[in-house]
Amino acid sequence: MMVWIIWFIAAGILLVAEMLTLTFYLLWLCIGAVAAGLVSLAAPDAVLVQVLTGSLVALGLTLFSKPLVSRFRASQGFKDIGTDIVGREGIVVQSIEPGRYGQVKVGGDIWSAASVQPLNVDEKVRVISRGNAIIEVERWEG
């Protein structure tokens, strides 16, 4: 099997994983794998150069994107959807048991959710906090 195929398969897997986690770290690794794959097309036998290129691209994106993202978040008009969701009402679409995740629909979006209370399907809940991709909810008492 050609090495460039392996690099592009790895990039595809990383891209899918990135879409599930909603962080940028796996995206940077995906771009690094694509860069390594491109080097592999040009120099199929230079595996060390491919690995170094992919590593440097991923490392560079990781190091230089953080200040850029911080500046973007501090810009006027930036609205983080994650902070808006706290305090909003949602509906349980997959039951939640303490220590196990379920799913909650908030607005038009479905989130993975956790709770210290057992919550059944169609119960109204309030979002009390948000992690990267998982929200914490409690029974709506209003």
Quick structural summary:
The chain is 49% helix and 21% strand. The chain contains four helices and five strands; from the N terminus they run ααααβββββ.
Model description:
The structure is a single chain. With 142 residues, this protein is of the alpha+beta class. Helix content is 49%, strand content 21%. Strands 1-2-3-5-4 form a five-stranded mixed barrel. Helix 1 (3-21) runs antiparallel to helix 2 (25-42) and helix 2 (25-42) runs antiparallel to helix 3. The longest helix is centred in the middle third of the chain and has 28 residues, at 47-74. The N and C termini lie far apart (61 Å). The model has no long low-confidence stretch (mean pLDDT 88).
Q: Sketch the topology as an H/E string, one letter per element.
A: HHHHEEEEE
Radius of gyration from the alpha-carbon trace, in angstroms:
20 Å
Q: What class do helices, strands and sheet pairing give?
A: alpha+beta
Helix-residue proportion: 40-55%
Distance between the termini: 61 Å
Q: Which descriptor suits the 3D outline?
A: elongated
What is the number of E strands? 5
Portion in beta strands: 15-25%
Mean pLDDT: 88
Strand order within the widest beta sheet: 1-2-3-5-4
Oligomer: single chain
- How many helical elements? 4
Major sheet, described briefly? 5 strands, mixed, barrel
Low-confidence stretches: none
